[in-house]
Amino acid sequence: xxxxxxVRVTPTRILMRDAGLIALVxxxxxxxxxxxxxxxxxxxxxxxxxxxxxxxxxVLAFLGRVALTMLHERRALPVALVALPVALxxxxxxxxxxxxxxARSYPFRSEVVNWSLFAVALALGLRGVWLNWHHGGLxxxxxxxxxxxxxxxxxxxxxxxxxxxxxxxxxxxxPFLPFADRRVLDIAILVVTYIMLGWGLxxxxxxxxxxxxxxxxxxxxxxxxxxxxxxxxxxxxWTCLPLAGxxxxxxxxxxxxxxxxxxxxxxAIVTLGFGEIIRIILLNWYTFTGGPDGISGIPRPTFFGLExxxxxxxxxxxxxxxxxxxYAPIDRIIFMFYLILxxxxxxNLFTLxxxxxxxxxxxxxxxxxxxxxxxxxxxxxxxxxxxxxxxxMFGGFGGSFFATRQGFISPESFTFIxxxxxxxxxxxxxxxxxxxxxxxxxxxxxxxxFFRELQQYRMLxxxxxxxxxxxxxxxxxxxxxxxxxxxxPDPDRTGAA
Amino acid sequence: xxxxxxxxxxxxxxxxxHLTMRFGGLVAINDxxxxxxxxxITAIIGPNGAGKTTLxxxxxGFYQPTVGRLTLHHPQRGPFLLERMEGYAIPNRAGxxxxxxxxxxxxxxxxxxxxxxxxxxxxxxxxxxxxAGLLGLPGYRKAEQAAxxxxxxxxxxxxxxxxxxxxxxxxxxxxxxxxxxxRAMCTEPALLCLDEPAAGLNPRESAELNRxxxxxxxxxxxxxxxxxxxMTVVMGISDHIVVLDYGRKISDGTPEFVRNDPAxxxxxxxxxxPDEDADGVSTGA
Lengths: 497, 285
Description:
The complex is a heterodimer.
Chain A: H1 2-6, H2 12-33, E1 36-41, E2 44-49, H3 51-72, H4 76-95, H5 97-100, H6 111-133, H7 142-173, H8 182-207, H9 216-233, H10 237-259, H11 264-284, H12 286-289, E3 295-296, E4 306-307, E5 317-318, H13 319-322, H14 330-355, H15 358-368, H16 370-375, H17 380-406, E6 408-409, H18 416-429, H19 434-450, H20 457-472
Parallel strand pairs in A: 4-5
Antiparallel strand pairs in A: 1-2, 3-6
Helix pairs in contact in A: 2-3, 4-6, 8-14, 8-17, 8-18, 8-19, 9-10, 9-11, 9-17, 10-17, 14-17, 15-17, 18-19
Chain B: H1 2-11, E1 14-23, E2 26-36, E3 41-45, H2 52-59, E4 67-74, E5 78-81, H3 89-94, E6 96-98, H4 111-117, H5 120-126, H6 131-135, H7 138-157, H8 173-185, E7 191-195, H9 203-220, E8 223-227, H10 231-237, E9 240-245, E10 248-253, H11 255-259, H12 262-269, H13 275-284
Parallel strand pairs in B: 3-8, 3-9, 6-7, 7-8
Antiparallel strand pairs in B: 1-2, 1-4, 4-5, 9-10
Helix pairs in contact in B: 4-8, 7-8
């Protein structure tokens, strides 16, 4: 409001020069990269030119720069008036492209470029309309935005009291909803697996503040523990699950003991290294793990001793014959869904409970200030080790579920990208926020799965979303911390000034 | 000298003997010996870089002294040799608590939580190292209530009961200083080490701090060790002053004695030397 007056308007000459400079840079970059293209034609290579692409890229960069500057200076109306019709035109051209010429799309040959152009024009236009409406919006007022988002986070967390059970209820009835076919359930299982892993990593990263880039190592230890125990000792899923958790926790202690004296970035790099070491061991210890061949034929879990296959193995009984049902292959998927839902809930309840215990508060205090913790007589090494190993234990549970769901595991499933995605879920959700992890997992795992058609652009969109979040709200979507205990029960008196 | 030390040691809370701390070639503390008694405020003063904070870091286990012996005579638990203990065990077992020159609270946690975390070891035992606590056994709940009561006692002392559920980082500066002292007191120490508690306080806050420190000394009977530059605080409340300069002890005694000690005046105001010395420097240069 008062800010609006203080924003200086750049003179047209300087604006043009600035935008021209940007256009020149884009021209320089795109001339070589876009302008020429080598194609494999019969009998050799041919150099094709695409100077129209260079021209359009340069013009668009020029216009985009002008629009951004004008938006920044609150001259929003002209931008909206230009950008919205452009967006509309591109959209119409896209939708009715087949009528014009089924062989190519308009206005550009590439569909992806067209959709990107549409998205950018729409974003600019909407931003312009928004700024025009709310005079002096919050574009540059980062602190106010942080405060607003913190309030949103607080409200969502208050709402989580109702939202949590509601989501849980939805999850419980999901397999019986009409649209829940095999594909939807598979995606749901995947999302809930990542929610569980996110909650597990949240103990390490969100509560204890230990940046762990090698979480997938414990996931792998859990998966291989189950697979090897089941194959070599003929143990069932329900015996192996706790064993896999214990072994993963043990791996956490072994890894944590030497590395937890490091802080911050150094810890992150060492855990990254250990994550890779575990994967490479799995890959190369052929006699023990099967190396790149992996382990196949991992037994499926049973429902109180009842198998969920079509035919029982010798001496066993199947679920459908015991309950006199007709066999449906989706039963096993539904059972898997409830299994991972149960494991995820266990993780969540454990975290909620331990946060209110001395060890949970100690983790959070350690995240805030390790030196102060030492001065209060807390043993930082042991406290960190418990966080690391408990996080690892849940990773191990998740891993053994993964093994039993897939029926086949190989080191390829445990690459760094898995760690990165789990960490992204935790960070995006807001460190330490349980409900945030749920939303972030749906956003990061569920949506890309549904939009598989976008193929290779999926990861690009993923990266762009992450960058946007980091710029817009670095502390995560729903980062808001409620005290673990209060002296005054009335929440209105908290006064988060 | 050592006979005096032995006499002191009989009723001392803390004895520091021949403490030396070297960082490579730099001697931060050079053969310092003194004693601090319970129910007394012992101030450690000296110009910047005299080694005061290094002394604190040796006492509280952040540094391992190069040479020397640091003995804490805990009234209930007997003597502890601090230089042989691990850093975190010193507050936990020997009962030495400290505050920091630049405040080190847990800013994103509430005031009450800050005071509860200070009672971590007690609560960990009560929660059966988390196992009993996870099951919600009544023993832990009782211990937590007791911890909250202790926190409330100190909140009343520092007038923060109303704001107990605020984030500690949102408190005004003076309140943060006092909260840090209260947090250290929640560890139920035998010796409280305060590193410049009056830094950045206005005169009213600083008078309030004096009242708090004398209250702790008189009502809780523990010893206080105080690094301070604010002479009104030092002269107003301390019972015993140790003066350091360039890592050496240059004076040790009651406030009156130290105030009139020529060595102290020299260290603070500079040498009152004849003029030819200064001339010598200028001609030499």
